[in-house]
Design a protein that fits this description.
The protein is an all-alpha fold. The protein has helices at 9-20, 25-32, 37-47, 156-162, 166-177, and strands at 132-133, 142-143. The mean pLDDT is 74.
Amino acid sequence: MNDVGAWTDERVELLKKLWSDGLSASQIAGELGNVTRNAVIGKVHRLGLSGRAKSPAASSTPRPRKAPTRAPSHPVGGNAGMTRGANALAPQYEPEAEVEVEQAPALPEDVVVPFSDRVTIMDLREYMCRWPMGDPTTAEFRFCGGRSQTGMPYCSYHARIAYQPAADRRRDRKIVRA
């Protein structure tokens, strides 16, 4: 064991003195050298030291507090464009200019996976698509079960739905809002 930071009797006495003088654990660690703040805290705890003298910097007079700034109960001027209630903290998006974006090939609306090809969680294997199908609270709930792409949880069709480029997601969000 390395004795550089060992707790010798002299170091323990110095620790007790510095602690009673009101120094912080960081300051004591600096004074002792080769010991961390956490080691000082642990030793203080094991020694059962509690009461401390107040340092001169921490006087008994409380710090002056800043006067609270109050917003007027009724905003001055018009309140057009203000958001209130549950949407007050919702992000406000500026309309973006329409940009010509090369359209990705359209996905077929629905790929019908026959019920016989769908699998339960007990039948699901590493190479199978984990796309959920149906209501999880019913006995008919299944997973797609198709062949998944290597290293991916979904088949190629469901991966295209799950992993959309950010630009496509923003464009889709604009369409919903309009």
